[in-house]
Structure formats: C-alpha cells, structure tokens
Specification:
- It is a single chain.
- This protein is of the alpha/beta class and about 250 residues long.
- It has six helices and eleven strands.
- It has helices at about 30-40, 50-60, 80-95, 110-125, 190-195, 225-235; strands at about 1-5, 20-25, 25, 45-50, 65, 100-105, 130-135, 145-150, 155, 180-190, 210-215.
- The strands form three sheets. It has a seven-stranded mixed beta sheet with strand order 5-4-1-6-10-7-11, with helices on both faces.
- About 35% of the residues are buried.
Length: about 250
C-alpha cells in the first residue's frame, strides 16, 4: 500500500498563515492534495491543527489526523510530528503501508512525474530507503557560506584551513552542489519506524536515498519565495481555474 501524508500547522511565525495563503488562486496546502490525487495514491492523510487545512483535506477526501497542540509550536520538530502520524496511520489502516509520499503544506512545487519516479525506484531497488528531489544550487555552496561574528565581522562558515585546493570564486569549483528541496519525498515506512537512527537534519530520509533531479523548488518560509513558487506553478500551467496535464 502506498499512502500520502501532508503535514502543516495552523500558525506560522515567519509568514503567518503561509500554509493556506492563496497562491495562483488556491490555498498553498491544496497543491499537495492535487499531486496526491494525480499520482493515484491508495490513501491520503493530513496531520494538522488547522481548521482551514482540515477543510481543504476533507474536500480532497483525505483522512484527518488531529495534531496535538504541543506538536504545533514554532519549535516542534518534524520528526515528532511524523512519529505521531505513524501511530495514527497504522491504527487507521490496521496495517503498515509499504511506501509513504510525504508532502509539506508550504511546498506546492510537487512534480508528479518525480513522485512516480521515486515510487518506481523504491519498487525496483529494495536497497533504497527513499527517493528525494534535489535542486542544484551552486551559489549556496558551503564554500561560499559566511557567518557574522558578535562584532559584526564577516567570517568563513567553513574555516579557511579546511577548504579544498579547488575552492575558488567560480560557483561550480566544488562540483555540483545539491540541496534536498523537500518538494518530492518518497520513503519506505521503515524510515518512519527507525527515525531515531536516521541522519540529521532530515531523519525521516533514511540512509540510502536516490536523487530525483529537480530544476528548482523549496518549502516556503519567506515572502520572496512566494514569487518564485508562483512562477513555478504558472510555468507548468496552473491557473486559478485549471490544473495542467498530468495533474487531472
């Protein structure tokens, strides 16, 4: 069985209401449900404390997991939210699903072809724990990263002594720099069951994860990111009244 799980809380500190703020004519959280329907998952769950997100989920026939207040705080860990959802999903199904597609309410940029690729990858290769979308962002290489001291001075994030000999002002000097953009996340149920053993910072990812190459994407946490994700949606053919081919 392959299930979908969308997560999102009611209150956000950085951008209040971001999880259900309208973008291209729909609440942001709705795009995850649209993608889940397009892929044809066996069942979809939504873990939230938000009445708005619950209402959107119910319109798309998702099963509601009531998220406790202590798991809907600004410092609540995604891992703890997923552990709670794990128990609720197993109790609801009466069995353990094989694969879960994890969706974030604040990430509408879900490429359904990559979701399908991730599912097929896990079916074909039993050694894989998961398949995650990655975007190449050479401009954000750790080599180029800086921190600011208490005195307001710019300093290397990576100490100069630890930089490789190939490091330079050329963006690609360290080779391709990829970030998990969290747009597409497909994993075996065992990743949830063994989350405490998973590597940081995304313990639900497992230890052996296949790369699904995305052009760009991310979960929205700042105002400027709405503009980029709006472009992503429109570029693929989303409008306020229609969804593109492949999402029907």
């Amino acid at each position: 069985m392959i299930v979908g799980l969308l997560i999102g809380k009611d209150k956000s500190t950085g951008v209040p209401g971001k999880n259900y703020r309208e973008i291209v004519g729909r609440p942001m959280c709705e795009y995850g449900f649209i993608a889940a329907e397009a892929v044809g998952l066996d069942k979809v769950f939504v873990s939230t404390d938000s009445p708005t997100i619950k209402a959107v989920g119910e319109r798309h026939k998702a099963s509601i997991i009531d998220r406790p207040a202590e798991l809907a705080q600004p410092d609540s860990l995604t891992e703890d939210v997923l552990k709670h959802a794990t128990h609720e999903i197993e109790a609801s199904l009466g069995e353990k699903p094989d694969i879960v597609v994890l969706l974030f309410a604040n990430n509408p940029a879900v490429d359904v072809d990559l979701v399908r690729e991730g599912i097929e990858s896990l079916k074909a290769d039993s050694s894989l724990d998961s398949a995650f979308s990655v975007s190449r962002y050479d401009m954000f290489s750790p080599v180029r990263a800086r921190t600011v001291s208490a005195e307001g001075m710019i300093e290397n994030y990576i100490p100069q002594s630890e930089l490789s000999e190939t490091a330079s002002s050329i963006r690609s000097s360290e080779g391709g720099i990829y970030f998990c953009d969290l747009s597409v996340q497909v994993m075996r149920w065992s990743c949830f069951e063994n989350m405490d053993q998973g590597p940081q910072p995304f313990q639900w990812m497992g230890h052996r994860s296949k790369a699904l190459f995305n052009n760009y994407g991310f979960d929205v946490d700042s105002e400027w990111q709405f503009v980029v994700i709006e472009h992503w949606l429109k570029e693929r053919g989303f409008t306020a009244k229609a969804v593109p081919n492949g999402y029907e």
